[in-house]
Amino acid sequence: QVHLVESGGGLVQAGGSLRLSCAASGSFFSINTMGWYRQAPGKQRELVAAIGSGENTNYADSVKGRFTISRDNAKNTVYLQMNTLKPEDTAVYYCNAGVLITTRLYNIWGQGTQVTVSS
Question: Residue 34 above 90 pLDDT?
Answer without folding.
Answer: yes
